[in-house]
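QA checklist item 7 of 12: single-chain prediction sanity check.
[x] sequence parsed
[x] length recorded as 173
[x] structure emitted
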Amino acid sequence: MPSDTTRPHAMTAEQYYASRPVLFAGAGVLFRNDDGHILLVKPTYEPRWVIPGGAMEPAETPRQTARREINEELGLAHEPGMLLCVDFVPAKPPTRLKPGIMYLFDGGRLSAIEKNAITLPADELTDHRFVEPDALTDYIGGLLLRRVHAGLAVCQSGIPVDLEDGYPTQRSV
């Protein structure tokens, strides 16, 4: 299989990269309060709650995406902490048309000043709340729930995990 520097001689760089799979990439941040409750936000565009985060722009790194999303969604200038997990998410048509790579960073514990300073963009988010880990299933499910649980475990162990569809791979168990 050719790398990006060893493509078939008959192909230009543009042709080679156009022949490669297109991936969706995004980054989220796991924030907690002093009681260990998880910060969730309520989007205007879907019924379920989510964690702060979003899609990566073409020129961004995952950490830059997390930083930008914290600022855009919460109105906070908060530096993301350690990488908790990387999750490869396979395509599952008809709802998930592209495979993706999702990064989850530790946001740490928000201070009282930061919690009071949260400002949501009205066109994107309608609400936010801190939810007990045991009650997360009332707000989020499936892939995101698995990723958040994996991230919480990493907050305890300090050892980042490699996920596939929200499940730890053999090497990260």
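[x] summary fact logged: Residues 36-159 form a domain with the Nucleoside Triphosphate Pyrophosphohydrolase fold (CATH 3.90.79.10).
[ ] second reviewer sign-off
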